[in-house]
Amino acid sequence: MITAKQLRELLEGKPFKPFRICMSDGTHYNILNHDMAFITRNTVEVGINLDADGFAEYIARCSILHITKVEDLPEAVST
Predict the structure, then answer these.
(1) Inter-residue contact 66 to 23 (CB < 8 Å)
(2) Domain spans of the chain?
(3) How far is CA 34 from CA 13, 21, 58, 61, 74, in A?
(4) Which of 7, 24, 30, 38 would staple 66 via disulfide (CB 3.0–4.6 Å)?
(5) Does the domain at residues 4-72 carry the CATH identifier 2.40.50?
(6) For the segment 13-41, what is each residue's pLDDT rounded down to a tens digit?
(7) Does 45 or 1 have the greater pLDDT score?
(8) Of 36, 2, 34, 40, which is closest to residue 15 (Cα–Cα)?
(9) Burial level of 22, CB count in 10 A (0-12/13-18/19+)?
(10) Sheet strand arrangement including 19-23
(11) CA-to-CA distance for 43 and 60, rounded, in angstroms?
(12) How far is CA 20 from CA 56, 58, 72, in A?
């Protein structure tokens, strides 16, 4: 089981390494930089459709209980 602490460690890693959050319903979210996600005790809020300035069009709120795995991504992956 993935924990909030593990996700925070991924976001705060130096250097940052892009990763993918895979959900139980089959959706996934690519986290390409540390500003794309915000961790709470029970959820991850992921910015979606970032513009050129890094502002999200909207967010996806993901329950940590529904995260099935976290995968490393190559740094060249785009949104």
Answers:
(1) yes
(2) 4-72
(3) 9, 13, 17, 16, 15
(4) 24
(5) no
(6) 999 999 999 999 999 999 999 999 999 99
(7) 45
(8) 34
(9) middle
(10) 28-31, 19-23, 67-72
(11) 10
(12) 17, 18, 6
